[in-house]
User: Fold these one by one.
Assistant:
Number 1:
Amino acid sequence: MAKKNINEMSFLDHLEDLRWHLIRICLAVIIVATLAFIFSRFIFKSIIFAPLDMSFPTYDFLCSAATYIDVTTTFCNEKIPIIIQNRTMAGQFSADIWTAILGGFVISFPYIIYQLWKFISPGLHDNERKHSRGFIIISSLLFFIGVLFGYYIVTPLSINFLANYSVADIVDNQIDISSYIGLVRSSVLASGLIFELPIIIYFLTKVGLVTPETLRKYRKYALVIVLILSAVITPPDIASQVIVAIPILILYQVSIYISKIVVRNQKRKEAKNV
């Protein structure tokens, strides 16, 4: 049966359409997650547990930088003082499953965005669809950059700080595998979603909820929110918070510019229709 025109669809028709898009998204995530589960040994050894090795690129770079300026740092230690352990019967299996699902979501993200775009795009005008052709590529690129930022910056900074933090020498860091993977998962996903800020601002500007003037007016409040957000997703040391806050502030500034372009195009369109 041919798909109905957007103007002919009822509320239930929209829900049915959304249901099929969500089903396709779930199938894509499940298929990729299954492949990730099959290769889980490689994923855990080469990706998940890689930040526990002091040869990790981030530690190597920061150690070289600290040595250059003659500063003593834990980034130059021989090893990270933690032991990963499992204390529940299904702990390792659950870690395997959730890691596979995370991998399925991350790798399938472009397809997820494509399906959401297929649901939204029929409600846009032809010229709006034309100017938004790069939406899937840009949003996917921003997400993957955020994921890499979370994996290579936020995750190792958090692990290094928390592993070397000690209240007494008699306390050993024997970390449950679920806690460790939770840190990696939250760092990667939070960073990936935060890097979608320009896309979110674009759509909020399109529907009139945000303007460039509003973003500029509340820039100082945004700075405070960014610092709080940086403190949440990173260990509570100033250096780590600054490292995370800088790209978020750059994204905020880029979002202001994007909002300005959207408003300018809308005014040109209104002037042309008068």
Note: The beta strands are 83-85, 174-176.
Number 2:
Amino acid sequence: MTPAVSSLPAVQGLAAENLGVFGRDPWWLIIVKAIFCFAFAMLTVLFSIVWERKVVAWMQLRIGPNRHGPWGMLQSLADGVKLMLKEDLVVKGADKVVYILAPIVATIPAFMAFAVIPFGPANNEISIFGTRTPMQLTDLPVGVLYILAVASVGIYGVVLAGWSSGSTYPLLGGLRSTAQMISYEIAMGISFAAVFLYSHSMSTSQIVATQHDKWYVVLLPVSFIVYIVSMVGETNRAPFDLPEAEGELVGGFNTEYSSIKFALFMLAEYVNMVTVSAIATTLFLGGWRAPWPITAFWAGANHGWWPLLWITIKIQLLLFFFIWLRGTLPRMRYDQFMKLGWKVLIPVSMVWLMLVATVRALRNENYDFQRIVLYVGGGVLALLLLSLVVDVFRDRGRREPAESGAPGDRFDPMAGGFPVPPRPGQTLPPVPRRRPRGERQLVNATDTAETADKEQEGDNA
């Protein structure tokens, strides 16, 4: 057995030893830590709402909220109170039980993911009311799979909200949102698999512990990029906020909701933003660890309560990324969005995972770095050449009917009485293009001269 392979049980034993510090807290301390996780998520949401409105206002040269509290910092709290005091309506044709439970189902799983997010090292326990405890509520050998599981439950709240409203447009918005979340969860899960291969664990605390010398954003950049795109699509944020449709003049699956139930959907969206940012920080950005320039001259940066500051800063930077996207990019078309998920992110994630697994297997067989680069680079080059050949012959087959003048499989988009898009293999008729201005002026002058000549001939006759 090679040394790399034989070290795997040692790594698993280390993970089991680290997980042994959990489950020893008294019941009152578990409640305190659970309340802390809830309060951390809520306070981050309240701050991120104000921060989003401020940053977008600055980007658009506006003032933004400045009335409630100093610098408008209590604006999100005022918005919450306003939503609480609005009239709570229940649609007459709705399934009332499911209609009321849907916002709850969408909100609770967003908070549950924080149970396994590490806010500090497991072996550096802090003191709370005289009791030593790690800065994490709990951890599991499959902690990341637990996060994916509870995130999947939140999708039920979205689709049930659209279905139980008894209205067509909320149902369409719910279906769009559900297809969007399911599609991007696949790419998200594949990006996690590369992290599992490097850390030899699915425990969140162990994944952070294995990033002591180098963060996975450096070792697995493709996985990080895929996850960043997937987390924006997973949370229905711009430019992927496609459950809302301006053409339908509705807001999507939550159209028929008001008051506290509508506020729960908004809360679930922002808590999901905080959750996916915390996951990205844990898996790729070193979790609670301080960045390199700080650890270089400060040995105690990762001890005590300081890790809570570092993970909070990283989460806030990712939330700023959400806000920056909202104020920068326009909304995509739904077909472009689904094509990005199924035809780009998922294939790229699978190919990248195969490359990572190949590199790890070659390292376990004690191959040197040059031979690994030669084998992996040769395989990638062969794959690119094969893709190039396929594209060339495919494009040639498409050009030949067009050059020969064959009409192809054309169809009338208005044959059914309303416009429909072409299906695969069908082509639209050529669209008449507007003539350049100079050509239009020349044609108009010619038509005017011909008309004048005809009028003169008529007068002469």
Note: Residues 29 and 128 are 8 Å apart (CA to CA).
Number 3:
Amino acid sequence: MTETTEDRFLDGALKLLQPAKGYRAGADPVFLAAATDAKPDQRVLELGCGVGVALFCLMHRVPDLEVVGVERNPELADLARLNAKAGNFAAEIITADLSELPVNLKARSFDQVIANPPFFDRTRGTSAAETSREGGRGEDTPLATWIDVAVRRLAPGGTLTLIQRTERLQSILSLFDERLGSIRITPLSSREGRPSQNAIVAAKKGGRASLVLEAPLVLHDGARHDGDRDSYSRQAKKILRDGQSLSDVRLVHR
């Protein structure tokens, strides 16, 4: 049995089980959920859902979603099911490799597909010691596969939302080719004036609007880390503490 901890998200509104060791979700899936512009009654698929942090943050904000999460690690998938039951979330969690989805899932389409693919390509380097950490941070399924599977599951006009390293944006945009358009990129900057290491990318299946590069979302106040105090910016707190959507937070601050 995997040793777990119960961790608080959205200022304690969500209490989710995670493995005590290995890959542990932090702020990234919360930002992914905030960036997903889902509406009530829409169908949502997450590829690589882990213990369900992004899904359940999204379901906490948007009611009446039809939600499916795919996770290949059986222990993480089991924790996602436990978290769904504990939070009374009607989410279907499927244990499968995204490159080998069940036939019945391949027959379904979704209004929203979201994913937080591993940030680093481990096929040419060393692996993390913990299997779950390696699966979460180190890639052995190519990014091209993540995007291709996501596009195939999107309904026409549906939106794919990813969070990924900015250094991989060129690869992501090339993989979108003619299938995805109306692209919006939101850089995430740790502090004002610093280069963005991560970015949120959203694109519509069949979209034709021009690419939009949003102003960076600055995550922390101040020029540098100052001890252990909470330095999250006001915008970041609205997302991480209050569970607000990225679009609502941006609208208020424009």
Note: The chain has one domain: 4-252.
Number 4:
Amino acid sequence: MLPAANRLTRSQDFGLVVRRGRRAGRPRLVVHALVPTPAATPVAADDATAGSRTSAQPTLDVQSKVGFVVSKAVGNSVVRHRVSRRLRHVVRDRLPGLPPGSSLVVRALAPAATASSADLAADLDAALRRLLR
């Protein structure tokens, strides 16, 4: 299970990561990553521009956040949940290696339904290497 502090839950945050983040596609999944820039650090509450600076990022936090998208194209409910569980397990082991405050959206593609956990881990590692270089 992914800790609650590391879950991307709000629809707006998913949309922001997908729209503004970088994308790396692999045969079984697509990873969208939004890594905060130094300019996106929060400012004092009395500053009138505080809202405009922080709105460009999902919740600014030192914890990395991850969300998953597994559509019906992957398979029926049983298959989708199996894929999501495998992805959660694979991502949980890689959380410490992510930059602080980063947000990821991992979108499973149809071939993920028949992939093993090792295949998903290899695709995720390759996508993360490409995004975080």
Note: Residues 22 and 33 are 5 Å apart (CA to CA).
